[in-house]
Write a structure and sequence with these properties.
The protein is α/β, with parallel strands linked by helices. It is built from 14 helices and ten strands. Helices cover 41% and strands 12% of the residues.
């Protein structure tokens, strides 16, 4: 009897140790931790005679620039919510279809002023992780998902902190922003976010306060975060009439914002993630990862391009990563790109319009340079994009060297890319001078 009990206790201890070892291996391998870096990027000054660490060029004369930004986050704004729904024969139109039409309509009526993108998130698709990615330009980890209900102030370099250093930042909406960015918000009007049965409190708060924040010229950067669409999805799903009503309400509000901003203002409307057919999110399915990015200004700053197609097919739109918005908005607003950002620039938003002619995006710049050798503005714009990308790559190289170590293959690959960009820029400068 004694030996039987002893063997059972021994077996229990072994099982427990194996379970603990398995949990440890799982935590180390799957639930990865991302190293946070507190280093801040800075702008180079024209008076500087010696190189400054973490300094980069923030102003490019031949690229688009805006004095003000209005950023509206419509939580869980799935892409098929904003493009025309093409109904097939004998199919009942879903409740969400064609209820939010103002964004697509604006790209068709004013193609030089508005652009629409498929906006791809990285998992996990929870709001706090998405907000971190959208502001730092970094990639979240699954271990962070547990803190979605216990947010803490972002200590990494981020776009909100850079904007705060440049001007006043005003916010209204989901109180997650207050928890993540409170030191950088000059004005903050938060509303509680976790009652998914409440479809209206946060949205009404945004609709009542955002126009006043925009009207105050002292606010250079104005942010609103609406939750009604997300909560309608959680409570009812995207096929319910409540979703259609919420999308129509959001549509009317976004239309009024477009009518209220000035020529020096860029409006950015985006979804932080999508939702499943049941209205949930958090995973990595296509419907959860894909959301919407819309940009608009009363000033014609774009040329018609692949971002404003006449086709209603969702798969025909340009796809951009959420982390690419960070360096793009930094360039558009003359602030340094956050130090930990690993995104690329969205070049179709940087290139200035040319009176309705084809846009000289980076992908087509070589052909454009051959056909328009005498067009100085075109070549200078392309060179500005190359310079901006070079600065971006050099900052990513510094960040990778700090996190990964200088001997890592990834760092060497980045060094090779930087050299290639330098060679390309030098060649184009020679072509321009000939």
């Amino acid at each position: 009897f004694f030996w039987t009990c002893h063997n059972r206790m021994h077996a229990s201890v072994v099982v427990m140790l194996v379970a603990l070892l398995g949990a440890f291996v799982f935590m180390q391998g799957f639930l990865l931790r991302r190293q946070e870096v507190s280093t801040r990027s800075r702008c180079k000054t024209s008076q500087a005679t010696t190189p400054v660490d973490n300094a980069e060029r923030c102003h490019f004369e031949h690229l688009n620039q805006f004095d003000r930004v209005v950023l509206v986050v419509v939580d869980a704004l799935r892409f098929d919510f904003v493009v025309p729904y093409k109904q097939s024969d004998h199919e009942r139109e879903p409740a969400f279809a064609n209820k939010l039409q103002s964004l697509y309509s604006k790209t068709q009526s004013e193609p030089n002023n508005a652009a629409l993108f498929r906006f791809m998130a990285d998992p996990p698709t929870t709001t706090m992780q998405r907000l971190k990615g959208l502001t730092t330009g970094g990639l979240p980890t699954f271990l962070d998902i547990g803190s979605n209900f216990d947010a803490a102030t972002v200590v990494e370099d981020n776009l909100i902190a850079q904007w705060h250093d440049s001007g006043k930042v005003a916010f209204v909406g989901d109180d997650t922003w207050e928890e993540l960015f409170s030191p950088y918000l000059s004005t903050s009007i938060p509303f509680p976010s976790f009652n998914v049965h409440d479809l209206d409190t946060v949205d009404q708060g945004v609709m009542n306060n955002l126009p006043q924040l925009i009207a105050d010229a002292a606010n250079q950067f104005v942010i609103g975060h609406m939750l009604g669409v997300d909560h309608a999805g959680h409570r009812y799903g995207p096929m319910h009439t409540a979703m259609g009503a919420k999308l129509q309400e959001t549509d009317a509000f976004l239309s009024s914002i477009m009518d209220s901003i000035g020529n020096d203002t860029l409006l950015v409307v985006l979804g932080d993630h999508g939702m499943t057919s049941s209205g949930d999110h958090g995973g990595e399915s296509q419907s959860e990862l894909e959301s919407t990015l819309f940009v608009y200004s009363p000033r014609a700053f774009l040329s018609p391009s692949s971002t404003t197609l006449k086709s209603v097919a969702a798969d025909k739109y340009e796809i951009v990563s959420q982390i690419d918005l960070v360096p793009t908005l930094a360039l558009l607003t003359n602030v340094p790109t956050p130090y930990s950002s690993v995104g690329a620039t969205i070049n179709s938003l940087l290139v200035r319009g040319h009176g309705g002619s084809s846009s000289d995006t980076l992908e087509h710049a070589d052909a454009s340079m051959t056909e328009r050798r005498d067009d100085v503005n075109s070549s200078e714009t392309y060179l500005a994009i190359v310079d901006a990308q070079l600065d971006n790559l050099q900052r990513i190289h510094r960040y990778a060297a700090l996190v990964l170590g200088s001997e890592e293959h990834a760092v060497r690959d980045l060094q090779d890319a930087i050299v290639q960009h330098k060679v390309a820029a030098r060649f184009l400068q020679q072509q321009q001078q000939q």
